[in-house]
Write a structure and sequence with these properties.
The structure is a homodimer of 100-residue chains. Chain A has three helices and four strands; from the N terminus they run βαββααβ. With 100 residues, the first copy, chain A, is of the alpha+beta class. In chain A, strands 2-3-1-4 form a four-stranded antiparallel beta sheet. Strand 2 (37-44) of chain A pairs antiparallel with strand 4 (85-95) of chain B, so a sheet runs across the interface.
């Protein structure tokens, strides 16, 4: 299992229709891509530098790779992400295992 | 519900006994503090700047505040976190709600 998370800040004004659209319709487009599960949209309320988060899980690397090259994801990145996101940090997590 | 997450890198050598101790015994100390649930330790395998993550949930702000001032947490921060963590970023999340 891989938990893919992206924390980001949008170029849109807080509470604007454009912000809502990105966090609802935009998220829904990504969540519908095959292999994506447990897609969550969150608001960041702590000390971190970004205001929102998309998080989603994949069963493994094959599903994650398929998502990355899926046309819906590529179009989302090229059109919405490239123009609406001001700054972001991407973290991917796997459950911890002792490595020695 | 508040999901408190901290992504961090340790001063310890990868795979060292000190690294394992922080990620197991250290994590267990925090996870046992009242009000903490769904405590997870993860390895970061993406593009983010840190190698590990602790994540935990609180039912609300009161439980989170109680954790912050709990003696076990304060001792952990003063002794282990202050000396074993090289760098970190803290993000706290709440489920997204439309704000307009």
């Amino acid at each position: 299992m891989i938990r893919h998370t992206v924390c980001f800040t949008l170029v849109h004004e807080a509470g604007s229709a454009e912000e809502v659209a990105f966090l609802t319709e935009g998220a829904a487009d990504l969540a519908a891509i095959p292999g994506v599960h447990d897609f969550e949209v969150a608001r960041q309320v702590g000390k971190g530098p970004h205001l929102f988060q998309f998080a989603m899980s994949f069963d493994g690397r094959a599903e994650y790779d398929a998502y990355n090259v899926h046309p819906v994801h590529q179009e989302f990145v090229a059109t919405r992400w490239a123009t609406e996101v001001a700054d972001f940090t991407e973290f991917d997590f796997v459950p911890y295992e002792r490595i020695s």
